[in-house]
Design brief:
about 230 residues; mainly alpha; 9 helices; 2 strands; about 55% helix
Amino acid sequence: QGIFPSGSSSQSSASQVNSPTTACHGEAQQHGATYQRDEVLAAVREGELNQPAGKKRRAEKRAQKAAKLAPRPAAGNLRPVVKPPSLRHNFRLRKGKGFTKSELKEAGIHNRLAPTIGISVDLRRRNKSVEGMQRNVDRLKEYMSKLVYLTNRKRKSKKSQDSRAKLKECRQNTHKHIIPIPRAKYDPARAITADDKKFMAFSTLRIQRAEQRLVGPRQKAKASKKEADN
């Protein structure tokens, strides 16, 4: 009835704390950290963590990829310039997935022709601003002005001879983005004027949205009034 084999429970717990196995546990952790450090140093000596060699290896892989894609651009397909979708990053520019139908139409390129000449297409993306759309349209027009068409036909014809002559003259584009991504321009800081204080941003946006929403009904009412007068 509640009788311990040897001594009380408190004595047994104290003996466990002061046991040699518990004392050796901390030493084992220290030895484990030492072993990890020795493994890292050995890896450095063997060249596994040699950063200059890694840089050289990455450059060789890029050169191999460019040679495999030649004479096409080493970066792959042309991609649009978009803004990230968050308040934290929407002030900068980055590469997007593909161009929209509207951008391709404005540049005079069919959306089915675009993938065959190295242009990425994204049918789900939508244009939300005129500035962003115009930026990508200019990007497409610049690409088309520098594009060189080549044919794979082996038969002796004028087109194939011309393409072989162009192939000797043209150089491969090895840039990271084919066309460099422009840096975002910001307005410099200035003092707040009296006009800025009078300007009501919320009311202005509400009025603009209402006018956009009521374009159809107003045109319909105007047409019906003209018919009634006639």
